[in-house]
Design goal:
heterodimer; A: 203 residues; mainly alpha; 8 helices; 2 strands; 64% helix; globular; B: 191 residues; 0% strand
């Protein structure tokens, strides 16, 4: 039992790391990764929702009727998203403003609903917790990596999460490659990172 | 009137929902491999988005605001959208079976399409009037359809090309989406 729980956790970190291995949840991935701080913030918010909704859905899995399960999942997820939204508004207001409509949009993040449907609805609470945590941390890592690449090349800085301090990476002569922080750069950068992931290791 | 035309142009081109606002990218990559599915999805989105835009505006103005329940916006909107999609599906199946045959399989997917939820939230955030909200929903949906159909045409060509192995499928899809986004980027200074 203990071993499988560990496996459920670690699969989210490499074998099924979103959004590279599971091509889901692209919208927040592309939209918020302009700075490392936003990427990490979004990752943590999504992880919280993912873990809580996975555990609750797993506990309720024998109660929820099969025919209306998707609607039930969405209500559970929306509840936790509302909690995240209110907590961020109270304690991390600048980040709340920067992430904007992408916080309420965690509701329609396909990763969260996908894990509820594919995993939590069929498994006990403890493996579901491990699954949610693994996928969530994997998602946070991917967002951080993408955000780091985009921010370092796009604006020449690296924003340290929490402190919000933008550390310049290159010298003062650096000309920002602003393509990277704009929309086209987001698509190209994610595409190339996916390509690099495909070069290393198979599924 | 000219305000509404400007709003429409800005929603279709300048702030294109897929390529500039990054919303609705999962169906963008998911259903764009064939022209037929892309067209079906685009039509289903236009159909649902306009209705969802109107319904969520009404929900917000007449239910959430008067009672001070704005913090329940997320929960209320997703429920409105989910039930609307269900209702549209049932209505089409009974009333217009030919249209249902075309759009049917795309309708359930729309519930979790962040473009729909996103536009509804943008309408509220920008404090649009009811007419403006309708125009913006319709134009965002048209912009979504335009980008999706253009992208499907590109992807049909990519299938014929020889792509290096690690770049295949989603990876090359994302890079070409980036190029398409670059083209839309040219509209940026327009309004």
């Amino acid at each position: 039992m203990a071993k499988t729980t560990v496996q459920e956790f670690t699969k989210g970190l490499w074998a099924e790391i979103p959004p590279f291995r599971l091509v889901l949840g692209l919208c927040p991935t592309l939209a918020v990764t302009k700075t490392v701080e936003n990427g990490v913030g979004m990752g943590i918010a999504t992880t919280f929702v993912l873990v809580c909704s996975n555990v609750l859905i797993s506990l309720l899995r024998s109660v929820i009727p099969k025919k209306v399960r998707i609607a039930c999942f969405i209500v559970v997820i929306a509840t936790f998203v509302t909690i995240v939204e209110l907590v961020m508004q109270a304690y991390a207001y600048p980040l709340f403003l920067k992430l904007g409509i992408f916080i309420p949009l965690i509701v329609v993040n396909c990763i969260v609903l996908g894990r509820a449907e594919a995993f939590a609805a069929k498994n006990a609470p403890v493996p579901s917790l491990a699954d949610g945590l693994g996928i969530g941390i994997g998602f946070t890592l991917s967002l951080t990596a993408l955000a780091a690449v985009r921010e370092i090349f796009g604006s020449g800085t690296f924003t340290v999460p929490i402190s919000g301090l933008a550390v310049p990476v290159f010298g003062p002569e650096f000309q920002p490659f602003s393509f990277m922080v704009e929309a086209p750069g987001a698509f190209v950068c994610l595409g190339l990172m996916l390509c690099i992931m495909n070069m290393f290791g198979k599924k | 009137m000219s305000d509404l035309v400007l709003l429409a142009i800005s929603c279709i081109f300048v702030n294109n929902i897929l390529l500039m606002q990054y919303l609705g990218n999962c169906p963008f990559l998911g259903v764009s491999k064939r022209m037929e599915t892309a067209t079906g999805m685009a039509m289903a989105v236009v159909f649902v988005l306009v209705m969802a835009g109107a319904m969520t505006w009404i929900t917000n103005a007449f239910i959430l605001k008067p009672f001070g329940y704005e913090y329940l916006q997320t929960l209320a909107f997703i429920l409105v959208i989910a039930s609307l999609v269900q209702f549209v599906e049932m209505f089409l199946r009974k009333a217009v079976p030919t249209l249902y045959a075309g759009l049917g399989i795309f309708l359930p997917l729309i519930t979790t399409n962040c473009a729909v939820m996103g536009v509804c939230l943008i309408n509220i955030k920008e404090e649009y009037s009811f007419i403006e909200a309708l125009v913006s929903s319709l134009s965002y949906a048209v912009g979504f359809g335009l980008a999706l159909i253009l992208f499907a045409a590109i992807r049909e060509r990519i299938i014929l090309a020889r792509v290096p192995k690690p770049l295949q499928d989603t990876s090359i899809g994302l890079v070409s989406a980036g190029m398409l986004s670059l083209a839309f980027f040219a509209f940026k200074g327009m309004i």
